[in-house]
Design goal:
The protein is built from 6 helices and 15 strands. It is of the alpha+beta class.
């Protein structure tokens, strides 16, 4: 009962941080603590598969993407998942974790990419994402990068088979992460930043375009969606539009809680990457590791 009460207090703090966004006409109805807890603390993850059209090497390739959202206990100091949250005391932080995977083929060889984002649920106490990791594997080699929140910066550790990218260890001034926008949408889209913003662009894009991560200026908007290609009720679209380089990310999601993401478009100069929702389920997937559990992959359309 004590844990349940604590979760309710955390959610009340999160909901209390909601304030109407004066720069948009969108009006949200925030869920109460009970509804939030019932969805996100049910001991299951939300798995959603997407049909993917991925731009690469001047062409567009078909593949699939998966967004996995799940809550877990995280260490604020070590920035790893806790083995024993009760023993961690005040170091324990409840986060909404996103595991974002992409798989697609480019000609003869495949790409496998994965990003993990660890965003605290209590945005009053922990306004910034604690950690992001991104890995990419393909037949030429593999790369890995990690962002860890420090006092006034994100510390970037990067490793690559490319000489020009090499081993990187440096700080980037703390600001909004494009990679955390997905988590903000699911937790509380009412606090999405609107207007002229400073952003650390997506780690996926940094890898695919071989761009060094640094702060960039962008224009952020939130409005009702008018794209019929994305199916859903009362869809909204959140857009980050960068002037340099010329790129726009548009994420389409449902206005009502739990704000399911129905798809996205990522336009980079003349190329566009697009994903549309295929199937969603809630599942304790970490227990589904027997041959019989392959049926869930079939249900998600991944085989």
């Amino acid at each position: 009962m004590r844990i349940k009460n604590l979760l309710s207090l955390v959610m009340l703090a999160v909901l209390a941080s909601c304030s109407s966004n004066a720069q948009t006409d969108v009006n949200f109805t925030s869920p109460d603590a009970a509804a939030f807890s019932k969805y996100w603390y049910a001991g299951k993850a939300e798995l959603t598969s997407y049909n993917l059209e991925q731009s690469r090497y001047g062409a567009t390739y078909k593949g699939h993407a998966v967004l996995i959202f799940v809550t877990e206990d995280f260490s604020n100091t070590k920035q790893v998942k806790l083995d024993n949250p009760k023993a961690a005391g005040t170091d324990a932080v409840k986060v909404l974790k996103l595991n974002f995977t992409k798989k697609f083929n480019t000609g003869i060889y495949p790409y496998s990419m994965m990003m993990s984002v660890f965003k605290p649920i209590d945005s009053n106490k922990y306004p910034h994402t604690l950690k992001v990791t991104t890995a990419s594997q393909e037949w030429c080699g593999h790369t890995f990068m990690q962002l860890n929140l420090k006092k006034d910066a994100y510390h970037l550790s990067g490793y690559s088979y490319f000489e020009s990218e090499g081993d990187v260890n440096r700080d980037i001034k703390k600001t909004l992460l494009e990679d955390e926008v997905w988590n903000i949408i699911r937790l509380n889209p009412e606090v999405l930043p609107i207007g002229d913003v400073t952003v650390i662009p997506a780690t996926f894009i940094s890898r695919l375009k071989h761009n060094a991560l640094t702060n960039k200026k962008a224009r952020a908007t939130l409005k009702l969606a008018d794209n019929a290609q994305f199916v859903g009720d009362d869809l909204l679209v959140y857009e980050l539009k960068y002037s340099e380089p010329d790129r726009s990310l548009r994420i389409y999601f449902e206005k009502e809680f739990p704000h399911e993401i129905m798809g996205w478009e990522d336009t980079y100069k003349e190329m566009m990457t697009k994903a549309t929702k295929r199937k969603s389920m809630q599942l304790d997937y970490w227990t589904k590791n027997s041959p019989a559990d392959l049926i869930y992959r079939e249900q998600l359309g991944l085989d």
